[in-house]
Amino acid sequence: VDDDNVNVTVKVTNTDMGPVFTDFLSEVTSYAFAHVDEISNMSDEEMMDLTVELLTKCLDKEDLATKTEEIVMHVYREDGVWDIDPAQDVIDAILGGFVEASQNMG
Known about the structure:
Blueprint: E1 5-15, H1 17-34, H2 36-40, H3 44-59, E2 66-78, E3 81-84, H4 88-94, H5 98-105
Antiparallel strand pairs: 1-2, 2-3
Helix pairs in contact: 1-3, 1-5
């Protein structure tokens, strides 16, 4: 710790995105097989809207599991402003494990 750097240990609790991501991939696959002609004619914007709709459907389900992670965040001051170092483990914890879940599926 110095005047411009500090490491802070925090617990982050969020929706566990691993099961949500698995559910989302199932929704996408089901939709794709049921609407092959429609999807082949979609614009990029329509495809993005559909993606958001299907992900939102998965996130709106009741009783989603949560997960808590203890992480160390590096916080630093630059030009008088405090900021958080965007390390991957910090981002993944804030996103409920979505980064890790998407990497595991790919």
